[in-house]
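On clarity, I found the account of how folds are encoded harder to follow than it need be. An entry of this sort, consisting of the sequence and the corresponding backbone structure tokens, reads as follows:
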Amino acid sequence: MQPSGWRRWPCLFASFCILAIAFSFGLFSLPAFYPVLIKQFGWSHAAAAAGGSIVLLLIGTFSPVVGWLVDRYSPKAVILGGVVTVAAALALLSTAQSLAQYYLFCVLLGVGTSAVSILPNSVLIAPWFERGRGSAVGLINAGIGMGGIAPLLATSQFGRRGAGGTFLYLALWMLIPFLLTAILIPRGNSRREMGLGGRATSGPGVSQLVRMPIFWVFGFSVFFAAHSMVAVQQHLVLYLRGQGVTPGRAALALSLAVWSSAPGKILSGAIADKFSARLGVLFSVLCIGLGISTLLATPAGSDTIFLFAAVFGLGYGGIFNATPTIVFEYFGTRGVGAVMGMFLIFFGLGTSSGGLLAGYLFDRTHAYAVPFSLDLALAATAMLLVLVSARQTRVATVASVSPASLGI
């Protein structure tokens, strides 16, 4: 049964805005702060970028806890707690005067961002869309692309407010997703409360999941893709500034990459609906590889840098879709918060290590060509894993996809 048509659209809109503001503002604005923090405190590139790596690490590694909380309570409760935590972390970052304080507050930001991430939002909306589920997930994740305004928004405030005031300014924006969550999202998440009826089959347990080839094949492909894409995203502003590009133009390139991720999410979701989640992942990894190749071959001052941003952004967005579309295709939509959390560990480890390793390699070589070339090789490895995964995923499909497992 399809739930009542009108009730799902407010949820879809709320999830879109949660990902556009609560998830994106803290995460995507941090790279714009790096040059300011480096100049103000004398930190190294790796030290500044480590803050973003901490946030990204927590988004993934805290996901099993978030998934358990979603299954135990409700997506709404988890999201409300996450929005409050993100606001508090941004406010505290405005007071940071040392690396220890900066890292501590980034830990808090990572916990909050994990609680408003694609996991609770995907679990929230998926049961409402028996058909076109991948497109629905892609649509709400497109909100992350709209959050690409964060670097430009932050950069526009530095001259007037400084780094501390800009963090506070971003924290105030969290009032919007908080009110939307409180007003538009239903209180519960059971099938009866949603008007779906029938029984739902929960996803596999952890011990069962780790014995499935699909877990490791897709997990490592997402790890390599996430590592390569975030290494470039986190260091793009630093790379362009180091090549003499103006702050506004560098921030625009980063924002364009994040904005392009919005159609990338929708397109990869449509591919997952029409064909398979595997092909959606393949499309995304291909775009990441093409984007990095363009970046390496393009002079930083050339307008072609914006072509890189557009192509790279399509793949960047699609990888955010990978985990929910894979989980929903093979394990259904109910009771899969913990399963999705396990998959997101790969995503979190990849995203957190990408920026950190790129900063370390730059500090040792004083050239971004080295880390970016490594990222291209890792994207190619991810593509190879997806290409050779056809047999394992076909077996997983036959074994796990059934009307009962899909909750229909």
Confidence is low (pLDDT under 50) at residues 190-201, 395-408. The chain is about 80% helix and 0% strand. Residues 5-41 form the longest helix (37 residues).
